[in-house]
Amino acid sequence: MKLCVYLSGWTQETEYRKTVKENYSDKLRLIDPMTITPIGVCEKVGENCDYVYIIQRDKKLILKSDILVAYINRLSFGTIMEVMYSYDHGIPVYVINPSGEFLDDPWLLFHSIKQFRRIEDCFDFITSKK
User: Fold this and answer.
1) Where are the beta strands (DSSP E) in the chain?
2) Assigned architecture for domain 4-128
3) Splitting the chain (130 residues) into consecutive groups of 10 residues, what average pLDDT does each group show?
4) What span, in angstroms and rounded, lies between the C-alpha atoms of 107 and 88?
5) What is this structure's pTM?
């Protein structure tokens, strides 16, 4: 059975998600929370409630995952909250920070298993552990 990986990161990090899907979807089951558009969310729950639905949905998806990978190319409250939520629920967290700017942050180090600078290094590491 394939490991299930939740793809965390700033909503606009489309290249990260595209790269992972193109290169690793045959080896891993990937959960991309960006697959539901804000328009679809608004149609489902109404304009005033979209963030509630998004957060509840993302938390459920994280709990269904074996691993969370956080791509941190810039600071994002959502990504950091997902890291913390995963850690608090015993879901291993791997961090990708291309610039290396945040890799020595004590909070990030404490709440993640391993840190990387390249997408390929992280996902090659994960797929080698199966």
Assistant:
1) 4-9, 29-31, 67-71, 93-96, 114-116
2) 3-Layer(aba) Sandwich (3.40)
3) 94 91 96 72 57 86 97 92 98 97 94 97 91
4) 13
5) 0.89
